[in-house]
Amino acid sequence: MKSTRPSLLLRVRDPRDSDAWREFYGLYAPLLLRYARDRGLTPADAEDVRDQCLETVVRKIADFEYDRARGSFQGWLRQMAERKVIDHLRRRRPRLAASAQLAALADSAPTPQEVWETEWKRGRLRFCLDRVRGSMPERDFETFRLLLFEELPVDRVCERLAINANQVYKAKARVLAEVRRTIAELDADGLGS
Fold it and tell me: Does residue 56 lie within any of the structural domains?
């Protein structure tokens, strides 16, 4: 990803920009799907909600004006996803929606905004890690993966990859720097926060 690329929100206004749409889909489709699943929908229902949200984006993106004072793209997308989930739940479970059982579940469950924020952060990190993986030496990324995802201590990473501790720390720092740079690019486009 180039550091001076045009805003993704502007690029997806052109339906012929398949690269922009592929990037947009890669960033937001998994987020929408996980959010709908975390809100209690079945896999098929969550896919319906994701697709409905993406269809709405396709229809409305040309008129979307990014203005931080009015709210972020993330906020607009979250509100849309929440409305679609609620509509879906109402259509699918009218009895449960009015029951005390649902109210009890809602009290102990995270709020929709908390679910969205968690999934937003996870999705953004996952997207950035996928991006970074393609631009980093495989050994650096594997070092990072072993440390952070498998939670191996440095000495075990050294042993497994036949490298020294200094190389482990440098690889981790390089990957983290790239992840931070990628996140900053998303933020600059208004897509990361």
Answer: yes
| DSSP helix/strand/coil, 6 | coil
pTM of the entire predicted model = 0.57
Cα separation, 7 vs 139, in Å, equals: 31
The answer as to whether 193 is a domain residue is no
Angle at the Cα of 21 from the Cα atoms of 65 and 26, rounded to 5 degrees = 105
What integer is the mean pLDDT of 57-82?
80
Task: Give the model's confidence band at 66: pLDDT under 50 very low, under 70 low, under 90 confident, else very high.
Answer: low
Cα 8 from Cα 42, distance rounded (Å) = 30
User: Does residue 109 fall inside a structural domain?
Assistant: yes
Rounded distance between C-alpha atoms, residue 90 and residue 92, angstroms: 6
In which domain, by residue range, is 49 found?
8-188
On whether residue 59 sits in a domain, the answer given is yes
